Amino acid sequence: MQLACEGxxxxxxxxxxxxxxxNPPVVLEGAVLQGASPPDASGASIxxxxxxEAGRFRMWYQAWPKDWDGEDVVAVACAESEDGLNWRRxxxxxxxxxxxxxxxxxxxxxxxxxxxxxxxxxPEARYRAFGYTAPKKLRGLYPHQVNRPGYYTAxxxxxxHWQLDSTDPVWPYGDVISAVWDPQADxxxxxxxxxxxxxxxxxxxxxxSEWARGQISSPVSTLIPDEHDDTGARARGFHTADYYGVGLxxxxxxxxxxxxxxxxxxxxxxxxATLAYHGRSGTVDLSVVYQLERGGxxxxxxxxxxxxxxxxxxxxxxxxxxxxxxxxxxxxETWLYFTGTKDRHGWCGHEVDYNAYIRAAAAEGGFARIGLxxxxxxxxMGYQAVxxxxxxxxxxxxxxxxxxxxxxxxxxxxxxxGLAKADGQPLPGFELDKCVPLAGDHLETPVxxxxxxxxxxxxxxxxxxxxxxxxDATLYAFDFTLSP
Length: 484
Description:
Elements: E1 2-3, E2 11-14, E3 19-22, E4 26-27, E5 43-53, E6 56-64, E7 76-81, E8 111-117, E9 127-133, H1 135-138, E10 150-156, E11 162-164, E12 177-182, E13 187-193, E14 196-198, E15 201-203, E16 206-212, E17 215-216, E18 220-223, H2 227-235, E19 240-249, E20 255-265, E21 269-271, E22 276-278, E23 281-291, E24 298-300, E25 320-323, E26 328-330, E27 333-341, H3 354-362, E28 368-376, E29 381-385, E30 389-393, E31 401-421, E32 441-446, E33 464-482
Antiparallel strand pairs: 1-33, 2-30, 3-29, 4-28, 5-6, 6-7, 8-9, 9-10, 10-11, 12-13, 13-16, 14-15, 16-17, 16-18, 19-20, 20-23, 21-22, 23-24, 25-27, 26-27, 27-28, 29-33, 30-33, 31-32, 31-33
C-alpha cells in the first residue's frame, strides 16, 4: 500500500482541518534479548539486522563480551528464534570469546553490521553485509585481513562464515551504517555516517548510496542536521543535536527512515584534528523521516516530533535508543527491534566511573539490551480528521480495479469516498451517498459503492479522483489495485 504523507504525488488535495500525525508504537516492557553468555555479558546491541526466513527469525547483533575493555567491538553474534520473542544462542564454534569458541559468534568482524539477502547472488553469496572495521579491531581473532579503517562489505552462504570482498574499504569513513534490500528499486539502499561541518559545528551526518550486482554508487548527502535540530534539542533540555544513525524501511511508495536523534548535553567535546567542537554525550530519541523519491530529499514531519523518546521507554532503555537496520513484517504487524541503554551516550552519571559502571551492568544483563517496538501494518503516520474533512486521491496510472484503504475511526466516526472526474464532476453511481461507509479498524479494505468495489471504466485519457471524506477518522494508507 501507499503510506499517506505530505507531498505524496497521489494525494492531490487536502482540506485545512486535516493533520498529519504520528502513530506511536507499542513497546514491550521487557527486553527480548540481553547479555546472558560470555560473548555478550556486557551488552547486546541491535547495531545489526533481523530477518525472517524459512520459518525462523535470525538476529545479527553486536556482542559486548564479559571481558570488554571499553573500546568499540566488532564481534557479531547470530541468535535464532521461532517467534521473534524467545531467542536461543547456537554453538557455532567459530570465534573465541573469553577463552572459548563454544558460542554464537559469527566470523564477521564488523562494528554496526547490517545484513540482507541478495536476490541476485549465487548460493555462495546469498547474504550480503556492510559494516565498519579496522586492523587493530580484529585482534588476531578473525580469519580476515583489512588494510585500513573504513566501511567494508562481505558475503556469505549461510550468514555465519563470511568472506570480505576486499582487503581495502569501500569507503574510508567509519562508525554507523545501515543497508536494506529495496525490492521496488531492485538494489540495496545504504545510509552511512560521514561526519563533517554542518550548521556551524562538526556533526554526525548521513550520506546515501545504492548497491546491486557488485556495483555501488558514490555517496551523496541525504540527512544533514541543521539549526532546527538544535532548537528541538533545547526544547527538550539539551544543547545541540545531530544524527547518530538511521534504520530504513522501503515501501511501495515513500522510503521510511527511523532517525536516531543524538541530543547533546554540555560540555561539548573538541577535536584537535578537526579544530572543531562536537557533541560528545547526551540522549538519543527516535523520529520518523521519509523520502518521496528514492535517492531524493528526506522530509521530517511538521515540528519534527519524536516517534519514540528514550524517557518514555522501559526503565532499562531511558538513556538512549538505537534501531536495527530495518523492520520485519509479522502478520498484521510491523516489528522494529531496538537497542536501549539506561545510560546516555557517553554519560553514566556525575562522577561515576564508566568502567565500573560497565562491570556492574554485566552482572545484570549488560549496559545495552534489545527490545521490540511494533505497530499495525502501514500505520506509521496518517491524516487525521475530527470534523468532516476531505482528501483527494488519484491513481498512478489510472487503473481499472479497486481502491483499498487503511483507516481507523473513533466511536461515531466514518470514512466515505466519492468518485469524480478531474474537473470535479461526480461519476454517476459513485457519489458519496452511494458509498458504503467504513467505520472501525480496517487494514486493507476495498471501498464499495452500493455493495460493489469495482472502480468505473473511464474513457481513455480521463482521470479519476477519489474524494475521501473523513470524520473522527485517520487515513494511514491507500492503494489503487487491479481486480483479483
